Amino acid sequence: MTENFEPTIIGFTCNWCSYRAADLAGTARVKYPPNVRLIRLMCSGRLDPAFVMKALAEGADGVLITGCHPGECHYLEQNYKALRRFLLLRRTLAGMGIEPGRVKLVWASAAEGVRLANEIATMVEEIRALGPLRWPRWHTWNGLFIEEKSRAEGVPA
Amino acid sequence: MTNNAMNQEPKERIGVHVCHCGSNIAGMVDVEEVARWAGEQLKDRGVVIARDYKFMCSSLGQELIEKDIQEEGLTRVVVAACSPHLHENTFRTACSRAGLNPYLCELVSIREQVSWVHTDRAAATEKSKAVVSGGVERVLYSEPLEPLHVPIHPATLVVGGGIAGIQAALEIADAGFPVILVEREPSIGGHMSQFDKTFPTLDCAACILTPKMVSVGGHPNIQMFTWSEVEKVDGYVGNFTVTIRKKARFVNEELCTGCAICQEKCPKKVIDEVYEAGLGYRKAIYTPFPQAVPKYPVIDKPNCTYFQKGTCKACQKFCPTGAIDFEQQDEWITVQVGNIVLATGYDLFDPRKVTQYGYGRLANVFTSLEFERLTNAAGPTNGNIVLRDGVTVPKTVGIIHCVGSRDRNFNNYCSVICCMQSLKFAHLVHERTGATVYNFYIDMRTAYKEYDEFYQRVLEEGTLFVRGKVAEVTDAARLPGEEGKLIVQVEDTLAGKQRRIPVDMVVLSAAMVPRKDAKEVAHKFGISCNANGWFIEKHPKLDPVATMTEGIFIAGCVQGPKDIPSSVAQGAAAAARVLGRIQQGEIALEPVRASVDQDKCSGCRICNNLCPFNAIIFHEDRMVTEINAALCQGCGTCVAACPAGAISGTVFSNEQIFAQIEGLMRVNFFTEPQSAVA
Questions:
Q1: Residue at A3 is within a domain
Q2: Among A88, B100, B176, B599, which residue's Cβ finds the most Cβ atoms within 10 Å?
Q3: Smallest Cα–Cα separation from B342: which of B173, B150, B534, B543?
């Protein structure tokens, strides 16, 4: 593990709750570490597990998935589907040797700016403790290091 | 899955516009550096111009973007400024003015999500670069789209017949459009109909409310469903299908004349927990109060002797028009409406929870609503303020403010009306009994027109004010003169000492709390509640009656505690918004929709059960799935689920999200240089 390791986290947010919670945290000037970068989706149900894989493959050390509290989904029940996918994904990731703590699911309503900020801060510390992921972004499927050029040509990560 | 965004030749001409937002962003983010970086480092991604400007949302800022589109031939625009929920529309409109499809403009937030939440300028600047880079990659995959135009059905559903709902219904109906008003209780009127006087003018609540109720009842454009509840809401803005359950009244409304003989003859007396707040009685067949609208009574089935024991039928026997119908069943009525106004009001906080104040245990501790009924001339005591025994006039009355509000143990919020309500109570006690009145308050809040003048008036009348949170109300006498009294133990924070004040009657100014089924209702209508349970408005200042869900508006206390004038104002405001919609005839919706590429669809039907809006149809003959764009709400769950990648979602396509991830991860100053990884 490197000294002063600063993790990078990709956060997926729901347009109706957690993205608005993030907006609320901003409006209320609640502070949290700058390690997280948020992507807005319409619903946590939109989260294709491939997005998480992609983020990790691109060098993210952790992925935060956020959605409306169970029972409060703007689209009635799609966050339950997100939950199901998350549980499956976590098993898949565990099979690939990725610590379960790197991908986290948090429910945050539009009113929970402070809560979301706290969850982000906690997660940054947890990932910091886990250390960098260094997922084989630079390696082929059999572990060989690849040049950026060939990687860019579409060799599967 | 990689879409290799990184090494395509730039095919688009992108403009990056970074906003200072005065010092809101520039104070924490080096915006010039972000713009410079984007101009240099993202050149190979197609960025041809990158600028920063003091206020991008100002007309000059927008003109700058428009000029760049026209002069530089931009085909994509990225604006780095505030949240898309605030100004996405502003910048999209600016783009379309300059001839660029508005959906080719991407607004990325470096204010709410960067400058306002971070404290390290260097890190905030780097994160802003990442955010801009994510936006640039994403916008490369944006498609030109047209908003969906949806016609607006001219009818409106108003849920809740309190003063806010009444106002909203009347405004819309007076403008000539149909309104369907649904009320859970047998009569409209809401809490206001229970009050006697209204602060600060002390005009009689019934005198100002009942004419409005009568106008609602007789309005040709208002169809009223009382003793009814909304069961189900389907559809979307412009075209909701609402199922209303009309509970059986057991009274034929067409025959009933409202003569009230049935109520007179009914032998069964029941404590009226709703309208009389448990202080008075009603019959098993009843209208809540004489001026009820509609005038038809209802039979309270669980308390009716006939329904419980099989004999009686006194009401039927005496009804001169034969309107009583014991066979009546609940009816389900389906209506089409374009917009919905929710005005379902509030509940009173149950002061039993504050055990030290003794409500429910000490007879002469009253809630504010009970006290309203005591003072009401049509109430159980004909307006006489008396103790629970029904005869004794109190000589001293203590009114406790902030019961269940401004209290960490219950609700942190201020319940808004209690100070003024308590002052009104103090005045009424003075006027009607001449008793000594103590007001125990934490802070006196008398904002708004003529409220503080009323406070001055009550002060001059000789009401005693004790500043301090009451610790306890007890009947355990310790000192001479306390026997038989209720003792209010309070720290007088102005005098700096503990006091024990014996009184005959205690009134608890209990908080307003959300309806106990508020969450359920919010879910039914697809809107959200805040942590306390009040419905969330679209914007707390600038859009107080709209909600995040198009076509659903809120008015009155559902949105938060408020007094009658504010509730009326909100009811009218919601009506104005609805009328604007109806007048336009149609509404433009975000074209965020999923669609199936039928050549790719293998007919596996995995997506078929995912849609809660039934937008996914399966064609058995061709073994392919199709999505009905009119029903699709754009959540994207099916897009994420399709194993063949046959479903795509506009505005949030896989390509856009993958590209955004790549862009966000391009700037990675935290970790070691990437070359060192090998």
A1: no
A2: B100
A3: B534
Helix spans in B162-310 (H): 163-174, 205-218, 261-265, 305-309
Does domain B4-145 sit in CATH 3.30.70?
no
Hey, is the C-beta of A64 within 8 angstroms of any chain B C-beta?
no
Chain A residues inside the 8 Å CB shell of B635: 42-43, 45-46, 74-75, 78
- Top residue of A4, A5, A8, A145 to mutate, by most chain B CBs within 10 Å, is A8
Rounded average pLDDT per 10-residue block, chain B, 678 residues? 51 95 95 96 94 96 96 96 93 96 96 96 95 96 92 97 98 98 97 95 94 96 97 90 96 94 95 93 94 95 95 94 95 97 97 96 96 94 94 96 96 96 96 96 95 96 96 95 95 96 97 94 86 87 89 96 97 97 91 93 92 88 90 91 93 95 81 39
Q: Can you give the residue range of the structural domain that contains A20?
A: 9-152
> Where is A148: in which H helix or E strand?
helix A148-152
Closest CA to A66 of A45, A96, A35: A45
Question: What CATH number does the domain located at B248-329 have?
Answer: 3.30.70
A48 and chain B in contact, CB less than 8 A:
yes
Instruction: Provide the terminal-to-terminal Cα distance of chain B, rounded to the nearest Å.
Output: 24
Which chain A residue is nearest to residue B236, measuring alpha carbons? A75
**Domain assignment present for A16:** yes
Q: Which of B410, B405, B409 is nearest to B445 (CA)?
A: B405
Task: Find the closest chain A residue to B131 by CA distance.
Answer: A37
* A22 interfaces chain B, CB cutoff of 8 Å: yes
**Is A58's CB within 8 Å of B531's CB?**
no
Q: Domain count for chain A, please give it.
A: 1
DSSP string, B507-529: EEEEPEEE-TTHHHHHHHHT--B
Residue found under tokens 């009328």:
B579
- Interface membership of B634 toward A (CB under 8 Å): yes
Q: A109 vs chain B: nearest CA distance in angstroms?
A: 8
Which part of chain B is CATH 3.40.50?
4-145
Angle between helices B31-41 and B121-140 (to 10 degrees): 40
CATH of the domain at A111: 3.40.50
Which CATH architecture describes the domain B349-513?
3-Layer(bba) Sandwich (3.50)
User: How many residues in chain B?
Assistant: 678
- Architecture in CATH for domain B148-240+332-345+533-540+551-588: 3-Layer(bba) Sandwich (3.50)
ipTM: 0.90
For residue B121 the two structure tokens come to: 């300028």
